[in-house]
Amino acid sequence: MNVDRAERGPSSGSSLTALAGRGFGAIPPTALVLLGIVSVQVGSALAKHLFDAVGSFGTVALRLFFAAVVLLLLWRPSPRVSRRTWAVIAGYGVTLGLMNLCFYLSLSRIPLGIAVTTEFLGPLAVALAGSRRWPDALWAVLAAGGVVLLMEGGGDLDPVGLLFALAAGTCWGLYILVGAALGRHTTEGDGLALGMAVAALVAVPFGVADSGTALVQPWVLVAGVGVALLSSVIPYSLDLEALRKVPPHVFGILMSLEPAMAALIGLIVLRESLHWTQWIAVVCVVAASAGATRGAPPPEGQ
């Protein structure tokens, strides 16, 4: 980021991040990514238990608010950046906030595995966009087949929930593109921390309007901190460390396991069983995403 860290001198936040970095350094990058995937899906399962108390808007507000607080304390970013950088940070934060709002609205209506599988079509579309390789057409057909199987095996699957999951996937695709710009304009975790603060500003008014004083119940606040740590702080930190060790296309292949992990976590934690055709749909989307990512050309300089 366009911030002179030397002006601020050493801080407990930078010491903590350095210590965490040394700890993460001993973990293989594959394990980092898998731990991040498990963490975010367990966090989503925990979030679903909060819906009865504070609703989906309230849950998103708690997650993003506490994630922003933790990241701001951890990185202590300076708001003194250029207007262009702030525009990128604002775009990142708004996209992140809308993505979470749409995803949690879908999660309140459909099973976790189906919500994540549908949402994952966004990153897959980004991976396939503009491709002129003929195998990518096959991956697109495979993903489309997965969507059809999701619909066919859905029974009384809520169509509004699916639409929210598709909206979340659209935001996820935009999030990837804006996130790349954020990486070019910022350094370390400063951009993430400021962007998360913007996302919290987007989500918190919805949560307060929808849930009111229910948000400040002690057990709700504790659960909200847990959701923020599991769904945002821990996985994003693990992903950043993993990306320092493996090429982006390898990272993308590992991330392709997320829909399957979501279905497993939904089954184990939430007792959400899927029809056998929906399990096949999950496998189709995972295979399509892994294939499209594996075949993507590496960025220049790698």
Distance between the termini: 22 Å
Tally of alpha and pi helices: 12
- Beta content: under 5%
Q: Compute the number of strand runs.
A: 0
Low-confidence stretches: 1-14
Classification by helices and strands: mainly alpha
Helix and strand run: HHHHHHHHHHHH
Major sheet: size, sense and barrel closure? none
Number of domains: 1
Helix content: over 70%
Q: What's the average pLDDT?
A: 84
In short:
The protein is mainly α. The protein has helices at residues 12-25, 29-75, 83-107, 112-119, 121-128, 134-152, 159-185, 190-211, 218-243, 248-255, 258-269, 276-295.
Describe the structure in your own words.
There is one protein chain. The chain has 302 residues and is mostly helical. The protein is 78% helix and 0% strand. It has one domain. Helix 2 packs across helix 8, helix 2 crosses helix 9 and helix 10 packs antiparallel against helix 12. It is globular. The relative contact order is 0.21.
Task: Give the key terms.
0% strand; 12 helices; 302 residues; disordered N terminus; 78% helix; mainly alpha; globular
Q: Helices, strands, pairings?
A:
Blueprint: H1 12-25, H2 29-75, H3 83-107, H4 112-119, H5 121-128, H6 134-152, H7 159-185, H8 190-211, H9 218-243, H10 248-255, H11 258-269, H12 276-295
